[in-house]
């Protein structure tokens, strides 16, 4: 395929493009969902401001408390597993807490109601995100009934949001809107910076996004990189080795499917400029795709099996005038064929999953760390559940 003509070739490209705030906003699920509704998973978007509970939500999230907001007494509990029931009960029990309690109780009745409605609409199981991001760094904290981050009761969602560092990132406007140039300036360990971040969160739109939970085969998840309105690269998203991604035929099918999907559905419809990253999920025959997410083209978006310098090199090569060649046919042969697909191509690939676990360095609530000392997983889980239940009943 000939390389498409980019619309802005006047300057030598830099490692990262300048990304205005409007482009970061375009990657918010609430910005793109209505444009791509038929190509992606059904989703409910709950605007905390419209509910009138944004401040209470942020206060609860910022507080040291590990207690979850109570579930309304008149709630119509959706179908849930027994472990979900007990989480639900623990959350409900909190509504009776009051006198003598040192820990403040945060009440979010409208949000809880909206979550219950959404869970019902989406068939009992949802995948949660905040403005841009899912709490995937905290997935370990709830049982993985149908897969990571599968939530069937409001308590699941509250627990995930409360335990996730990534969610905090979404609520700090200086980090959420940072580009690679400013990212280094933010020091998340600094107390002053944390206080400033809390203040900045108050200016931000806060949306809880609940998507129909889909049991995905990780081998069919791909991340795609677009710069200067050119589809440069496609990376396997899960970093395990998969036999069925190795043959030349499979690779060609993947490239053809993604290229067609991008050209037909995304290129002219996406509102986030000419530089962005999108995630897709391939059908089992690899001939069609679902859209999973958009992400800004910046350092905090994981380049997976590429590096950003690799992607820059691919872009530079694509922009370079073709070398003099005796014929148009020969010129085409010397051009690189885009997109470039990268998959884990051997069990010993350096990025293969045998390396350190994702989010291994993320912080857990301090209470969890203390409580885990000297206990095995089952004992720790029991101790944690007891402590949460005790806290709810205070
Ligand atoms: N609707 C869903 N149901 C189940 N799992 C999902 C769903 N959406 C995403 N996932 C899983 O969660 C991962 C992260 O999803 P994504 O929307 O890209 O969140 P983030 O922007 O936080 O990375 C995906 O790679 C996929 O495995
Ligand atoms: Mg994303």
TrEMBL record:
A single GO cellular-component term from the record reads: cytoplasm
- Report the superkingdom from the record: Eukaryota
Q: Name one Pfam family in it.
A: D123
Q: Where is this region: Disordered?
A: 72-103, 178-197
Entries under InterPro entries matching the protein: CDC123 (IPR009772)
Query: What is stated as this protein's family in its record?
Result: Belongs to the CDC123 family.
Entry protein name:
D123-domain-containing protein
Taxonomic source organism: Dioszegia hungarica
